[in-house]
Design a protein that fits this description.
Number of domains: 2
Helix content: 55-70%
Distance between the termini: 61 Å
Shape: elongated
Number of helices: 9
Number of strands: 0
Strand content: under 5%
């Protein structure tokens, strides 16, 4: 199905921002890339800043729809669904990294620890937690996930581990670091799979 004029403008904006940088992109350039008249852009958006805001917010909406569709059509176990969510969001983040620069261009500052993040990462984190927390609660109810740690804290921890998988593709020996491996680490911890020998519990430093 051909893209709508509005979507062509959004896609052209994201593409040019990735190529030239948000600060250098012009409406004239976007119009040329989208193959529309500059006046057509004003039919949908008031200015470049408003256009950027719509690119960011609508890409997040598309992410949510994609993840929800994956969950709705899947009859998989909660553990598999957790990995599916992480994969969808990880793919999105690395496919739309320019959104973060566009957000920085709009706000003029990076997110500050302790302050609410209203940019793309804040929206993604909110989406992630909203989907992951209920699944973790399923694990708690089944006795497969610890019940002495708040589910939202486990969600944050899981988010951090899955986000890490996008940055560390292989270990120093070239072995692939998969989301499944990190999920196993999340569920089972870093303790040895073997039972320690009696009396051999000293920690080597």
């Amino acid at each position: 199905m051909p893209k709508s004029t509005r979507e062509r403008i959004l896609s052209a904006t994201e593409k040019l921002c990735a190529k030239e940088g948000p600060d250098k992109v012009t409406l004239d350039g976007i119009a040329a890339e989208a193959k529309v008249g500059k006046g057509t852009i004003y039919t949908y958006f008031g200015n470049k800043e408003e256009l950027f805001e719509h690119v960011i917010s609508e890409r997040i909406v598309q992410l949510r729809e994609r993840v929800m569709q994956s969950l709705l059509v899947s009859d998989r176990d909660y553990k598999e669904k957790l990995v599916m969510i992480a994969s969808d969001i990880d793919d999105f983040v690395f496919g739309h990294q320019i959104l973060f620069l566009m957000s920085f261009f709009l706000s003029g500052k990076l997110p500050v620890p302790g302050e609410e993040d209203t940019g793309p990462m804040g929206m993604i984190t909110s989406l992630f937690d909203g989907l992951v927390k209920p699944l973790i609660c399923v694990g708690v109810e089944r006795g497969e996930v610890r019940n002495d740690i708040p589910p939202i804290v486990l969600s944050w921890f899981f988010h951090g581990m899955m986000f890490l998988s996008g940055r560390i593709r292989t270990d120093p020996e070239g072995r692939k670091v998969t989301k499944e491996l990190l999920f196993d680490l999340f569920m089972n911890g870093a303790a040895s799979l073997k039972e320690p020998e009696s009396g051999n519990t000293a920690i080597m430093v």
